Amino acid sequence: MALEATTFFDWASNQGVSFWEVVSRNFTHPGPFGPVPISNGAQLVPDENRLDLLLSPAQFGLLTGVILFLFLRHKIARWREEHSHLKMTSSADIRRAAYTFLTFLEFLALAPFLCTILVVFQLYRTVIGAVLKHRHGKHFKGLLDGADVVWAIEDQNSRGMINIMANVEEPVATWTTGESSMSAEILLTLRKRISSRLMRNYRPHPKMFWKRNVELGYYFWSDQSELTVEDYIRYMDTMPLADGKRFIEEQQLRSLLSKINNRHLPADHTSSWEVLVGRQPLLDKERNILQYPILFRVHHSLGDGVALMRLLLEAIVDKEVPSRWKHLSKLKVMNIDYILKEQKASDHHHLTIGETMLQRIWKRIPSLTDLATQRDHILRILWTIYTAPAFFHDVSRRQVDNNCIHASQMANEKVVSWIHEDHNRDTRWVEIIKRTKRLLPGTRFSDVFLTALSSSLETFFASKNGTSPKNLTVVLPARIEKESPHLKLHNRFSVALQTLPITPGIQMNDTNRHYALTKRILAVNSYSDVLRSSSDYLINYWIMSKMTCLFPETILRKILKSAHSTLAISNLPGPQQMPRIQGRELKNLCFFIPNLGTTAVGITLLTYGGKLQLGILADRAVIRTEDEAHSILRGTIEEIERMGQLLDEV
């Protein structure tokens, strides 16, 4: 008996069977399972009951069209998302496009004049370099690079130094027995390691020991330093203690570091670094532990934050099994995975020695992915050049911040403070920020942190003058180039300005508190998206790395002078496992960035061992006491903890 249905859909509808049953029967009429036995010599006769067609041609064509339509719609949607910054959805976008085009035409008109100026100063700089080389002979080590010069331009009220602080712990019982000489042991260990690792006949980083000089308007390096390891690594100043006290309080350490952080470096501030070891420990009464502070002070012209943190960890800590180390800011630092990859690459190199010339040429031909990446890179550069004139106009027209922590003139006195997420306590600040970020797709770790900081600043402003500004301008540093596996002391960073809305924090009695927090984070994220979709970082990087070094000091000071921003914020991911000195872990690692221009407040964020470490350095012209500076950090942490409470309610 023949089946009336001729397609799978018709047959399945008539028989009321599932697709999987039909598959199991090989699309045949229900019957015995298994292959049909065929006797020798038998001829295959078409079975009219067999369902040969899964789809009819018309149905197959319709299904193909639907799939093709959905595929194209998905691709078009993705293209629109990737090029959303090019869409003109309003009259403001049209005006912006016209403004960018007109400023670019203006740049083309001035380009011959500007190029002439740059060429003249480049020739002048070359002549000055030749004169200095003739004057100092073999001791001349070259003019400072562009980004290094930016930090060499400083004044006595704000010197361009990064201060990195950490603690080494010791049980109180060891100290009270009189057997402890922890600070002397640390000092001796650091001197030995710096001498053996960095000051031997072959110096892996000779830039560390060069002097920074300025003559004829240009900064240059020379190796005429006569400093010894004892000059670089010394004891920290001591604080007077009351009768009967043996240990200092954290408030006293803050006051001491406030005095030290802007102090001259050795050799009349021509050297680039020093290490100070504290002799007076802090007492942790809860754990009955003593904490000895270590302060690593380094001039920013030596390198950026990533390079300096790597230098600190590679130069002074114990050389342990590489697998103990995790990524430092996503860099392969003594990482076993990187070593294995290098070994595989070396083995592959030996295997490819016998390859023919044609095979080697074929491997060098770029793939379609490489060509697409190169095309995107070229388009990005062209777009940056096209938008650069509009960027300069925007910066010149940007209004200067007006609030109580924006300085017009800085003093030669600083305040520092910090908050450490203790590894011995059950806090989860990093986890709270990450969970909040995941609940709002498209937001970033920094967006959530800036939102928490915003509420703390709002409280601080309200306590100072009763009102707070609607927003302020922050400087956000960012690294442009990827760090190489081998440490290089150089500055490969850029900066950009971002608007930060100042809004009240979470009100736990507000029924709409979840919506209010979401709205605040998305407001910060909108400014962040605008910045990241722009060419600001790349333009500033070109200026800092290629152009600043061309001009003499007097002109460069005027070019770099900026009064727009209120504070700078630096976020640096640190190692996930804590390094050790003489078997003792470095605890509470944090750093402080220098004030530049009239930006009198710098806030730092470091994730160290999975915990959050915050630091603040401010000029006393705007924040007078360490307690006021500490209140800004404390308010930020309190807001993060309130975010955690909201997460627990979800």
Describe it.
With 650 residues, the protein is of the alpha+beta class. Strand 15 and strand 16 form a beta hairpin. Helices cover 46% and strands 16% of the residues. The strands form 3 sheets. Strands 2, 5, 6, 7, 8, 13 and 14 form a 7-stranded mixed sheet that branches. It has a 6-stranded mixed sheet with strand order 9-16-15-12-10-11. The two termini are 63 Å apart. The chain has 20 helices and 16 strands. The N terminus is likely disordered. Helix 15 crosses helix 16. Among the domains are: 198 residues, Chloramphenicol Acetyltransferase; 241 residues, Nonribosomal peptide synthetase, condensation domain (Chloramphenicol Acetyltransferase), CATH 3.30.559.30. The longest helix is centred in the N-terminal third of the chain and has 46 residues. It is globular, with a radius of gyration of 32 Å. One of its GO terms (biological process) is triglyceride biosynthetic process. InterPro entries: O-acyltransferase_WSD1-like, O-acyltransferase_WSD1_C. One of its GO terms (molecular function) is O-acyltransferase activity. Keywords: Membrane, Transmembrane, Transmembrane helix. This is O-acyltransferase WSD1 C-terminal domain-containing protein.
Set down the secondary structure blueprint.
Elements lengths: L7 H8 L3 H6 L32 H26 L8 H46 L3 E4 L2 H7 L8 E11 H5 L5 H17 L12 E5 L2 E5 L6 H4 E3 L14 H11 L5 H4 L3 E5 L4 E3 L4 E11 L5 H12 L19 H16 L5 H8 L3 H30 L16 E7 L8 H11 L5 H21 L5 E9 L13 E9 L11 H21 L2 H12 L5 H8 L6 E7 L6 E2 L2 E9 L8 E8 L2 E9 L6 H24 L1
Parallel strand pairs: 5-6, 10-12, 12-15
Antiparallel strand pairs: 1-4, 2-8, 2-14, 3-4, 6-8, 7-8, 9-16, 10-11, 13-14, 15-16
Keywords: Membrane, Transmembrane, Transmembrane helix
GO molecular function, one term: O-acyltransferase activity
Protein name: O-acyltransferase WSD1 C-terminal domain-containing protein
